[in-house]
Design goal:
325 residues, alpha/beta, UDP-N-acetylmuramoyl-L-alanine:D-glutamate ligase, four-stranded mixed beta sheet
C-alpha cells in the first residue's frame, strides 16, 4: 500500500450477538449512577429478538471512518473461522483496507453477547489471548487505538515509534482492560495523544476520584492529550483543549440500542478534525454520528455519511456546543 492513508484503526474485532429481552428488572441507586440488570435465577428467560453483526471498537471506527470518506485501514488479529471471514467481508464491503488483518490459525475469533434492555446494553465478552505485532504500516494522518487484549505492551512500543516517525496524530479510546491497568501505565501513549476519548465513569476511574467535567478533563489533559473528550450518555459530551471547555448536547433520536454510541462519536469527531474543522464543529459531527447509531441495532448499521451528518446538523441547528470556560 504505497499511498498515504487517512487513518489506521488498531484493536480487537468481534462478532456481536444482540439479544433483546423484556423479562428483566433494574436495581439502581437513588441517583441512578449505578444500576444492576436482574433476571430470575435458574429461570428460562424469553428473547424478544436476536441479531448478529461484526463489531469491536476499532472495527467500528474503521467502518465509520470509511463511510465518512477517509482512506481507512484496520489492524487486528482474527481467527481462521467463520467469524474471521465475516470480519474480512465486512471490511471489504465497507472499503476498509484488509492489508493489516492478521490470521491466527490456532485460536478462534472473539465473541460477544449484547443484552439489550430498555435501549441500554450490557455486554458479555470473550477475548482470545493473542500475540500482537505491528506489521509495516503505510504512513497515515491518524491512528486510532482502542480496546485490545492483554498482550499489547510490545505493540504499543512499536506504535510509539511509528507515530514519531510519520508524525501521525493519535486518537486514543482505551478499552476496559487498558483502563484497569491505571493511568500510570497509559501515560506513554497519553503523552503523544492528539485526542483522548473516555466516558465519565472511565474518566473518574483514571483520575481516581469523582468530579465535575471541567475538573476531570483538566486532570486528564495534564497527562498529555491535546484534547480531552468526555462523553456522558444522554447528557451529551464535553471537550477541553486547555483553553476552552465546550458542552455538546445530543441530537434527537429514537434510542433502539446503545452499542457503539461512543465509538461513533469518536469517529465523527476525528473525521471532522481531519477535515480541518475545529473542536466545536467536531463535537457536532460526533454527536450526529452517534445519533445515527443508537437508532439501529448494532454499532455499524447507523454510521453516517458526510451528507448524513451535515443534514442532521442543518436540521437541528439549535443543538450546538456551548462554551463553558
Amino acid at each position: 500500500m504505497a499511498r498515504k492513508l487517512d487513518i489506521i484503526s488498531i484493536g480487537d474485532a468481534t462478532l456481536d450477538t444482540f439479544i433483546r429481552v423484556s423479562d428483566a428488572s433494574l436495581m439502581c441507586t437513588v441517583d441512578r449512577e449505578n444500576c444492576l440488570l436482574c433476571f430470575n435465577y435458574a429461570d428460562k428467560i424469553p428473547i424478544v429478538s436476536l441479531d448478529r453483526t461484526v463489531a469491536g471498537n476499532a472495527a467500528n471506527n474503521a467502518v465509520g471512518s470509511a463511510r465518512l470518506g477517509m482512506q481507512a485501514a484496520f489492524y487486528s488479529v482474527i481467527g481462521d473461522d467463520e467469524v474471521g471471514r465475516m470480519i474480512r467481508a465486512t471490511m471489504k464491503k465497507e472499503g476498509v483496507s484488509e492489508d493489516y488483518l492478521v490470521i491466527d490459525k490456532k485460536r478462534p475469533s472473539n465473541y460477544s453477547v449484547v443484552l439489550n434492555y430498555q435501549g441500554e446494553r450490557t455486554i458479555l465478552y470473550y477475548s482470545e489471548p493473542r500475540t500482537y505485532k505491528l506489521p509495516p504500516l503505510a504512513p497515515a494522518s491518524w491512528m486510532y487505538y482502542t480496546a485490545i487484549g492483554s498482550n499489547h505492551h510490545s505493540l504499543e512500543r512499536s506504535m510509539l515509534a511509528y507515530l514519531k516517525r510519520h508524525k501521525t496524530k493519535l486518537g486514543y479510546n482505551p478499552g476496559t482492560g487498558q483502563i484497569r491497568e491505571g493511568l500510570k501505565r497509559l501515560k506513554p501513549l497519553l503523552a503523544v495523544t492528539e485526542v483522548l476519548f473516555v466516558n465519565k465513569q472511565e474518566a473518574e476511574q483514571l483520575v481516581g476520584r469523582r468530579g465535575e467535567m471541567h475538573e476531570l478533563a483538566a486532570a486528564l489533559r495534564q497527562t498529555g492529550p491535546k484534547i480531552v473528550v468526555i462523553t456522558d450518555g444522554p447528557r451529551g459530551a464535553h471537550a477541553f483543549d486547555g483553553s476552552h471547555l465546550w458542552k455538546m448536547g445530543v441530537f434527537p433520536a429514537k434510542v433502539v440500542e446503545m452499542t457503539g454510541a461512543g465509538d461513533s462519536f469518536a469517529t465523527g469527531f476525528v473525521a471532522a478534525l481531519h477535515r480541518g474543522l475545529g473542536v466545536a464543529d467536531a463535537l457536532k459531527w460526533g454527536s450526529a454520528n452517534s445519533a445515527g447509531v443508537i437508532g439501529k441495532i448494532g454499532p455499524q448499521a447507523g454510521l453516517q455519511t458526510v451528507a448524513g451528518i451535515k443534514k442532521m446538523i442543518t436540521t437541528y441547528k439549535a443543538v450546538k456546543p456551548v462554551e463553558e470556560s
